[in-house]
Write a structure and sequence with these properties.
This protein is α+β, with helices and mostly antiparallel strands and 160 residues long. Helix content is 17%, strand content 31%.
């Protein structure tokens, strides 16, 4: 997967757009409108490695994820989703937690790569991808979505 980074200040602009959407009442509720609730945007990669969209977390009290916005690269709202039972933020934001979960799908002799936020077939099916490489150089993708770890369906691949 080729990874092309977004412009250096893109995340700042996306976060500002997300804050405006939340503050205006266009999305969210009282839980999401408190100061500091809108977190740091995470790039969502398409199968080609290009930037597809941004995942913008919205924190609940403490270390929980109340909701998220998914914005297109130009800041347009793609979707907003809130959680009735907010999951731990680490399930979606902490690379070590995601990698630890991905290792549940690791096979003997494989080495995990760095987690990257992507999607399973459709951009609204967000999941962290971890590519495992074996001694021969063969690669295999494992998805992590919250506390769920799975391999894409045969012939599926990222976005396939």
């Amino acid at each position: 997967m080729t990874k092309h980074g977004p412009p250096p200040d893109a995340a700042r602009g996306i976060r500002a757009a997300a804050r405006r959407l939340v503050a205006s009442g266009a999305v969210g509720d009282d839980r999401t409108r408190r100061p500091g609730a809108v977190g740091t945007p995470v790039p969502v990669r398409a199968p080609s490695g290009e930037l597809n969209s941004w995942f913008v977390p919205v924190a609940a009290d403490g270390d929980r994820l109340a909701a998220f916005l998914q914005l297109l690269p130009d800041g347009t709202l793609m979707r907003f989703s809130s959680f009735a039972a907010p999951p731990p933020a680490a399930d979606w934001l902490d690379a070590r937690t995601i990698l630890r979960r991905a290792r549940a799908g690791q096979r003997p002799g494989e080495t995990p790569g760095r987690p990257f936020l992507t999607y399973d077939r459709n951009p609204d099916r967000l999941a962290w991808g971890v590519i495992f490489t074996d001694a021969s150089g063969a690669e295999r993708l494992v998805f992590v979505a919250g506390d769920t770890v799975y391999s894409p369906p045969a012939g599926g691949g990222v976005g396939g």
